[in-house]
Amino acid sequence: MKELSQNGMNSLLMKLYDRSSEAIFFFDEENRVVSMNQAAEQILDPQVAELMKAGSTKAICMACKGFTSAEEEQTCIACYMSDPDRDIPSFQVFLETAGRGIVPYTGSIQMIDRENGIRVFMLRDLTEQIKTQESMHQQTLVKRVIKAQEGERKRISRELHDSVAQEMLSALVDLRVLKYMNVEEDVLKKVKQTEGSLMRLLEDIRHLSVQLRPATLDDLGLEAAFRTHFKWIEKNYGMLVDFSSNVQSVRFDGEIETVVYRVCQEAVFNALKYAGVEEVEVALLLTDSDLKLTVEDRGSGFDLNSPVHKGTGLGLFGMRERAELVHADLTIRSGIGTGTVIELTVPLNRRGDGQ
Fold first, then answer.
1. Final residue of a domain: which of 125, 141, 160?
2. Residue 30: how many CA atoms within 13 Å on its side-chain side?
3. Are residues 26 and 157 located together in one domain of the fold?
4. How do residues 54-79 score in pLDDT, each as one tens digit?
5. Secondary structure of the chain in the HEC alphabet?
6. Is the pTM of this model over 0.70?
C-alpha cells in the first residue's frame, strides 16, 4: 500500500471536511465555534450561524433542543457541551434547523487537541433511519393486532360451532320430540313455528362461525376454504364465483393463508356490494416462486384517483395492510365502467413457504 505524505493526508482531510454530508463543528474550551463546514452551516438558521461565527458561546444552545439521556428523550440536563474533558462517541440530539424544523441527529463529541482545548462535534441526520424504524414498528404492531384478531376470531368461531350450535341442535331435537307426543293442534302449530325459528337461528350461527374464521381454512387449506365460501355466496346471494386453482391440498404458512383468504373475501364482497355483477372470476395460481390471487369482475368499476370511494374505503386499506405483512404486492386496476381487477402476489421464496 502506497503511503501518503503529510501534505497528501492533510489535503484528503480538508476535502472530507469541506465535502462531507455530516455537519462538523470545532469548538474551543469556551464553547466558541472556531470552524464549521458547509454542511453544518446549511442546517443552521442564518442568525444562529452568524452568532457562531461571531464567537457567541451560547449560539449552540439557541439551535439545540436537547439530547436523549437514559432518563428523558429530550433534556438539557448534564449537557454534552458542559464537560470539556468528556468524550461521547454517540448520542441522539435534536436541532432547530433552517426550513425543516426540529430534526433528530446522531452526534459525537470528542477532544482532538487537548493542548488548545479543541473539540470536534459531528452530526449525522437520523430522519430517514427514524422513519424506517417507525415504519417497521408500525408493521410489527399491525401484525400483532391482526394476529390477535384472527386468534380471537378463531376462538369465537370454535365456541359458536362446538358449544352454541350444539346446544341449539340439542334443543331442536328435544322440540321435535313434542311433535310425536299427544298434544293439542295449536300447541303443535306453535312447536313447528318455534322449530323453524331455531333452524334459521342455527343457520345464522353457523354462517357467523364461518365468517369469523372458517374451520376449513385451518383444517384443509386455501382451496377448500375458497370453494366452501364461494358455494355459500352463490347459495345466499345468487352471485356465481368462477374459481380456478392449481393449489389443491398444498399448505402454506398460516399467516400467508390468512392474508390470501381475507384479501379474496374482501375483494369478492366488494364486487358483490358495488360492482353490480352476477359473476366474479377468482384464480389462485401457485408457481415456483410465488402464490398469486386474482379477483376480477366486469362491473361498474371506480376511479382509483378519486378521494372518495363507495363504502368506507377501509376495505382497500385493510387489503394493503395485510399484503404488507407477508411482503406481497397488491395491485388494483379499475375504471368507471371497465370493472375491477385485484391481484395479490405473495413471494414464497422470501419466507420458505410453498410446496
1. 125
2. 6
3. no
4. 888 888 888 889 998 888 888 888 88
5. CCCCCHHHHHHHHHHHHHHCCCEEEEECCCCCEEEECHHHHHHCCHHHHHHHHCCCCCHHHHHEEEECCCCCCCECCCCCCCCCCCCEEEEEEEEEECCCEEEEEEEEEEEEECCCCEEEEEEEECHHHHHHHHHHHHHHHHHHHHHHHHHHHHHHHHHHHHHHHHHHHHHHHHHHHHCCCCCCHHHHHHHHHHHHHHHHHHHHHHHHHHHHCCHHHHHCCHHHHHHHHHHHHHHHHCCEEEEEECCCCCCCCHHHHHHHHHHHHHHHHHHHHHHCCCEEEEEEEECCCEEEEEEEECCCCCCCCCCCCCCCCHHHHHHHHHHHHCCCEEEEEEECCCEEEEEEEEECCCCCCCC
6. no
What CATH number is associated with residue 236? 3.30.565.10
pLDDT at residue 351, rounded to an integer: 43
Q: How many CB atoms lie within 10 A of CB 300?
A: 18
The per-residue pLDDT for range 337-348, each reduced to its tens digit, is 889 999 999 999
Residue after which a domain boundary falls, among 181, 213, 245: 213
Q: How many CB atoms sit inside 10 A of residue 150's CB?
A: 18
Q: What is the pLDDT of residue 309?
A: 57
Specify whether 209 is located in the same domain as 231.
Answer: no
Number of neighbouring beta carbons within 10 Å of residue 276: 12
In whole angstroms, what is the distance from residue 288 CA to residue 246 CA? 12
Output the nine-digit C-alpha cell for 217. Answer: 381454512
Ranges of the chain with pLDDT below 50: 312-313, 350-352, 355
Tens-digit pLDDT profile for residues 221-251: 999 999 989 998 898 889 999 999 999 989 9
Q: How many CB atoms lie within 10 A of CB 337?
A: 10
In a domain, 24, yes or no: yes
Residue 135 pLDDT: 78
**Residue 11 sits in which domain range?**
6-125
